[in-house]
Amino acid sequence: MKVLVAVKRVVDYNIKVRPKADGSDVDIANVKMSINPFCEIAVEEAVRLKEKGIASEIVVVSMGSKQCQEQIRSALALGADRGILVEAEAELQPLAVAKCLQAIVDKEQPQLVILGKQSIDGDNNQTGQMLGALTGMGQGTFASEVVVAENAVKVTREIDGGLQTVELKLPAIVTTDLRLNEPRYATLPNIMKAKKKPLDTTTPKALGVDIAARTKTLKVEPPAERKAGVRVADVAELVEKLKNEAKVI
Ligand code: AMP
């Protein structure tokens, strides 16, 4: 079974980002970029399916600038077999990404498409669902367990207040939640091997996809800074402040 995994290049989760001085966007000049953590979980799940003999080939796809090759190579070092870069310098919003993925799905005919539930930069949580709508494939979002059977996949989903298990006919779409697995680290020999794995490049135009933006960012601003706390001498002073300053009691 062929598995397609979508990996996004995002600012590393350890980096504290700042808005640009003009508030037009987040400043990502010279910051460390990595695979979106939920996409790393998606790659790990695909690799585990291959180790179990269920997946026969893992294809990773990333859309964006030429530099996305770095994240594709990282996914190849984790165990994916080949990569596809859909190269575009313009901003790619979730609908454009989903349409590019739809074109790749048409071409590659994977039985399972695994995406992250969310990119940690835009916090969109849209692409997997949009791909489901575009392709008509069933989707199991926020997966914490994935069990592939003959012609179906059982996905346990993390929903408010509990877990829901759905069964999807293959081909299907899964989006990963945090508890699905713990991604491995790439070993040095695998990083070296990944350099030789095939990586094809295409463009949205070649895929026949219109990537025009549907939404416009008006302003980016940091969250309000928390005021420093004050130390009170005793309970009486605390009660007095809560009553008269904070006016919460
Ligand atoms: P989002 O809808 O932006 O929160 O992203 C959800 C998931 O869609 C990500 O975890 C990726 O698996 C996939 N995705 C979004 N944007 C891209 C991209 N530019 N390249 C590859 N995959 C992407």
Radius of gyration: 22 Å
Largest pleated sheet: 9 strands, mixed
Classify the helix fraction into a percent range.
25-40%
Bound molecules: adenosine monophosphate
Question: Strand-residue fraction?
Answer: 25-35%
Order of helices and strands: EEEEEHEHEHEHEEEEHEH
Number of helices: 6
Brief account:
The chain is α/β, with parallel strands linked by helices. The protein has helices at residues 37-51, 68-78, 94-108, 127-135, 188-194, 235-244, and strands at residues 2-6, 9-11, 18-19, 26-27, 33-35, 57-64, 82-87, 112-116, 138-148, 152-159, 162-169, 172-176, 199-202.
Word description of this protein:
By secondary structure, the chain is an alpha/beta fold. It has helices spanning 37-51, 68-78, 94-108, 127-135, 188-194, 235-244; strands spanning 2-6, 9-11, 18-19, 26-27, 33-35, 57-64, 82-87, 112-116, 138-148, 152-159, 162-169, 172-176, 199-202. The strands form three sheets. It has a nine-stranded mixed beta sheet, sandwiched between helices. The chain has a two-stranded antiparallel ribbon with strand order 2-5. Helix 2 packs across helix 5 and helix 3 (94-108) packs across helix 4 (127-135). The model has no long low-confidence stretch (mean pLDDT 96). Bound molecules: adenosine monophosphate (AMP). Adenosine monophosphate (AMP) binds next to helix 1, strand 6, helix 3, strand 8 and helix 4. Adenosine monophosphate binds next to helix 1, strand 6, helix 3, strand 8 and helix 4.
